[in-house]
Amino acid sequence: MHVVVVGGGIAGSAAALRLSGAGHDVTLLESSPALGGLVVSFEIGGTPLECFYHHIFPNESEILRLIEEGGLSSSLSWLPSTMGVLTGGRVWPFTSPLDVLRFGPLKPLQRLQLGAGALRLMRWRSWEPLDDTRASDWLRRTTGAGAVRELWEPLLRAKFGPAAPGVPAAWMWGRFQQRAAARKSGGEVLGYLRGGFRQLFESLDGRLRVAGVDVRLGARVREVDITDGVARGVTTVDGTSIPADVVLYTGAMPGIKAIVPADHHDPRWNGSGLGVICVVIETDRPVTDVYWTNVCDDELPFGGLIEHTNMVPTADYGGRHVTYLSRYFTSDEEIAKADPAVEAERWLDALAERLPSFDRSSVRAVHPFRAPYAAPLVDLGYGKRIAPMRTEVGGLFVCTTAQIYPHDRGMNEGVVMGQRAADEILAAQPQAVA
Ligand SMILES: Cc1cc2nc3c(=O)[nH]c(=O)nc-3n(C[C@H](O)[C@H](O)[C@H](O)COP(=O)(O)OP(=O)(O)OC[C@H]3O[C@@H](n4cnc5c(N)ncnc54)[C@H](O)[C@@H]3O)c2cc1C
Asked: Best substitution site from 27, 32, 38 to test ligand 1's pocket, by max atoms within 8 Å of Cβ?
C-alpha cells in the first residue's frame, strides 16, 4: 500500500512511523520547512524554545516512548512545578491542598467546599452524562458558587472567551482526569526536554527517513484527488500529483474542507477552533515565583502566565528569565485580527498596572506569536458530533485534535491518535483501497 500522510506534526509523524514499520510505502507531506506543527520553536540565547509553551506529564507514556526511542532520554528533566492564581493584584499559591485552604479570595467555608469538591471531581468516573451539562453548573454543584465566581468562570473565560458558558462539563472532567493521573504517577513534576522539543522532531525526521518514508518539507497539499468516491492521491500547490492507495489527513480540522471537494464534506468537519496568541518575554528578573499562573482578573487581557524559567533553569537561556503570556480567542473576537506585536505592548502595560510587583523595565525582549487554530472549540453535545477517522470517501482518513475530546489535545494524545489512525488504516486494508 502507498499511504500519503498530510501533515508532519506529532500525529502525522507517529502515524507515518507506524505505517512504515508495518511495511507500507509512506510519503509524508508537510507544508512548513520542518516537522513539528504546533511545536514550533525560536531561540533565546542560542537555545531552541517553543513559541507556544510545552511540557509533558509523567503518565504520558507514548510521547515518553518516542523520546526514549529517539535517544533523547538524557535531555529529559522532571522538574517541580508550581501553580498560582493571579487576582486582586497578587499571585496566590495554588499548588497544594493547603494552598486551597489559604486562598484569600474565598471565605474559609468556600475554600473547604472547593477542596472537597475538587477531590470528588478527580475521582468522577464517566464523562458521557457530562457532555450535555454546562461546566459552570457542574462545578457550582460540586465546588460551590464562590469558587465558580472567583475561579472557574474567570478560567473558562480565559480559555474560551465568549464561548465559555457553553463549555461542557465533560471537557472539565478531562482536565481533572489528567491532573489525577499525573499526580498518581509522579506528583507535582512536569517533564521538559532541555534544549527544546525541536530535538524530538529532528529525531523523528531522521527515523522516518531511515525507515524509508519519503519526507517532503515545504510541500502543501492543495487537493485530495477523488474519483468515483475514492481518494486516489493528492496534488500539492506546485501542481505535483502523488498517487496513493490511502490518504491520511492530520492537519487542523477546518483544513480538511479546503482540500476535499465540497460534495464530499462530512457535516461533522464543521466545528470551529480556538486561536491563540502567546507573547514570550525575556526579563532580567523573575515576574512571579510560580510556573503556571491562571489569570483570574478580567482587567488583564490574557488568561495564562507561564513562567518557564520557574521550572527550567535560567542558565539554559543565557541567564534570561522567560515567561509566556497567553490568550486563546474565538474567530469572531476582535483579537483574532489584532497584530500580536501591538497586543504584546498592551498586555505588558496592563500587567505592570495590575501586578505592582512586575517591573516593566526588566523586559529585555518581546517575542509575539499567533496560531490561528490551537485547539477545537467544544460546546454542549460535542462528544456526539465527533467525526470518525475513516471518512465516507474510500481510502481517506482524518486524524485531528478535534477528535480527542473529552481529553485535552497534547503531544501524547497526538501520538496516540496518529497510531490509532495507522491501525485503522491497517485494519481496513484491502477495503481501504476500495
Ligand atoms: C499554546 C499551546 C500550548 C500547548 N501546550 C502543550 C503542552 O504543554 N503539552 C503538550 O503535550 N501539548 C501542548 N500543546 C498541544 C500540542 O502542541 C498539540 O496538541 C499537538 O502538537 C498537535 O499535533 P498534531 O500533529 O495533531 O497537529 P499540528 O501540530 O497542528 O500539526 C499539523 C501539521 O499539518 C500541517 N498541514 C496542515 N495542512 C496541510 C496541508 N494541506 N499540506 C501539508 N501540510 C499540512 C501543518 O503545517 C502542521 O505542521 C499546546 C498547544 C498550544 C497551541
From this structure: 38
Q: Determine contact, residues 29/219, Cβ cutoff 8 Å.
A: yes
pLDDT tens-digit readout, 333-360: 999 999 999 999 999 999 999 999 999 9
Bond into 168 cis (ω within 30): no
Of 270, 254, 274, give the one whose Cα is nearest residue 372.
274
Nearest CA to ligand 1 atom 6: 54
Nearest-CA residue for ligand 1 atom 38 is 251
Residue 432 has pLDDT above 70, yes or no: no
Please tell me which residue, 268 or 118, carries the higher pLDDT value: 268
Spatial CB neighbours of 426, under 8 Å, sequence gap ≥ 6: 19, 22
| Ligand 1 atom closest to 252 (CA) | 30
> Cα–Cα distance between 298 and 278 in angstroms, integer?
18
CA R_g for the chain: 22
Whole-number Å distance, alpha carbon 71 to ligand 1 midpoint, is 22
CATH 3.90.660.20 residue ranges in the chain?
Answer: 190-194+273-376
What is the tens place of the pLDDT at every residue in 171-194? 999 988 888 887 777 667 999 999
Q: Are 236 and 27 in contact (CB under 8 A)?
A: no
Instruction: Look at residues 147, 145, 165 and name the one whose alpha carbon lies nearest to residue 156.
Output: 165
Reading the block at residue 274, the C-alpha cell is 480556538
Grid coordinates given for 4: 500519503
Helix ranges (H only) for 187-290 are: 198-210, 253-259
Distances in whole angstroms, Cα of residue 131 to Cα of each of 79, 168, 405: 34, 5, 10
Mean pLDDT of 191-199: 98
The CATH 3.50.50.60 domain(s) of the chain lie at: 2-54+197-270+380-428
Instruction: Record the pTM.
Output: 0.96
10 CA → ligand 1 middle, Å: 7
- Write down the mean pLDDT value for the chain: 95
Kindly report the length of the chain.
434
Residues having CB closer than 6 A to ligand 1 are 6-12, 29-32, 37-39, 52-56, 220-221, 250-252, 255, 259, 276, 278, 326, 371, 374, 401, 409-412, 414
Distance CA 320, CA 393 (A): 51
Determine the topology of domain 2-54+197-270+380-428 in CATH: FAD/NAD(P)-binding domain (3.50.50)
Q: Is 190-194+273-376 a CATH 3.30.1360.130 domain?
A: no
Peptide bond into 80 cis (omega under 30): no
